[in-house]
Structure formats: C-alpha cells, structure tokens
Design a protein that fits this description.
Layout lengths: L7 E4 L9 H10 L5 E6 L11 H7 L7 E6 L7 H7 L3 E4 L7 H10 L3 E6 L17 E5 L14 H19 L4 E5 L7 H7 L3 E4 L1 H4 L4 H14 L1
Parallel strand pairs: 1-8, 2-3, 3-4, 4-5, 5-6, 6-7, 7-8
Helix pairs in contact: 2-3, 6-8
Length: 228
C-alpha cells in the first residue's frame, strides 16, 4: 500500500481583506496554511485586475511559508523576474498565455523560482507531454479563471485523475517531486473527492477567508482529506 499523499492547504489572498493583507497572511499561516496563493490577473488574459509584484514584495516579510504566484497574465515573460525579485517561491502560468512555453519555464527556473503550468477546465493536458520533467507544479483550474467565489466544476475530476497518473509516472521516472494543485470552488464538503481524484495541494479562497475561524476550517479540510 502506497503511503498517503501530503495535504497542502494554500489559502488564496484573492478572498482576503485587502485592507489588512499582512495581518491576513499571518493569520492563515498561524491557522495552518502550507502555502499562500497569490492570484495575479491583468484584465487582458482574464477579465479582472488584481495585484502585482509590489504587493507580493509587501507581504513577503509576513509569510513564513512559500508564496505560490499564479500568473493569469499575457504576455508572461516580462513579469516573471519582477515576481522572483518580490519573493515568489512558485510561479505558475497558463500555456495559452506564452508564445514559447519551454522558454517561459526556463525563465522561471533561471529567476530562482519553481515553475508550474496551469490548465483551465477546457485546456488539454497534452501540454505536459514535453514539459512535465521541467515542472515543479501542475495546477488544474476547477473554475474558469477571472473571479473568486465560483462553484467547483465536477467534470474536472476525471482530468485530475489523468494528471495524477502523469505526475506519478514522471516522479517514478525522475525521482522529482511535482505538486498537483487544484484551484476553484474548493470547500470542506468537496475537498475529499478532489483529494481522492489525485490532488495533493488545495487552493481555497472564500472557503477559508469567508470563515470566522480559519484554523477550524483548515483543520476540517485536512480531516476530510485524511478520511478520503
């Protein structure tokens, strides 16, 4: 029997109180967060505008865990060094937003960060055919990106199972750790099904920041994953 997969909870700052961002970062880490998820939207690749490298740099002193930067921007390459300098640990991007996916992956690595690819609900996993051995994270969107608070799309679960097979095969071949993350509508009542389909890293925005007790919510998520 294979050992249980790690369970990493990554609260999304998109749902935090922006007037108290440093305090919110400290609060979710104290409550047990493993990463802080940082959503970057440009009102171009997605129809919303959020936060950039200056905000990442501002929260870095407040974060004792990795900052997981999700770039929903086009083009990608121009902004990568800025986020690396601002303190990002992971930088993930959408393959549709890069003219040269392999080059962007290399740029993230050369900038000192851990690269990952993001797959929208209708984006095929075929992008992994020639990239997975260079990635540290695979992120599956379980909503169409652009806004927080959306409902989880169940048809992503079979795709997640296929992504798990690909990640496990790559790990068996290379010995490298690749995180398999899911983002969008992750809540206490569906995280078990998401974990069972193969995720090991869970982005939760409104489910955490909309709760009165961050610690109890994160603990309940972990318990649901463990039970799965």
């Amino acid at each position: 029997m294979s050992p249980p997969r790690p369970c990493r909870i990554a609260p999304s700052l998109l749902s935090a109180d922006f007037a108290r961002l440093g305090e919110e970062v400290r609060a979710v880490i104290a409550a047990g967060a493993d990463l802080v998820h940082f959503d970057v939207m440009d009102n171009h690749y997605v129809p919303n505008l959020t936060i950039g490298p200056l905000v990442c740099e501002a929260i870095r002193p407040h974060s004792s865990v990795p900052i997981d930067v999700h770039l929903m921007v086009e083009p990608v390459d121009r902004i990568v060094p800025d986020f690396a300098k601002a303190g990002a640990t992971f930088i993930t991007f959408h393959p549709e937003a890069s003219r040269h996916v392999d080059r962007t992956i290399g740029l993230i690595r050369e900038s000192g960060c851990r690269p990952g690819l993001v797959f929208n609900p209708a984006t095929p996993l075929a992008w992994l055919d020639h990239t997975i051995d260079k990635l540290d994270m695979v992120l599956l969107m379980s909503v169409n990106p652009g806004f927080g608070g959306q409902s989880f799309l169940p048809h992503v679960l079979p795709k997640l199972e296929e992504a798990r097979r690909r990640v496990d095969a790559a790990r068996a071949r290379t010995g490298r750790e690749i995180l398999l993350e899911v983002d969008g509508g992750v809540k206490i009542d569906n995280i078990a099904a998401i974990a069972k389909a193969g995720a090991d890293t869970f982005v939760a925005g409104s489910a955490v920041f909309g709760a009165k007790d961050y610690r109890a919510t994160i603990a309940a998520m972990r318990a649901a994953v463990a039970a799965a």
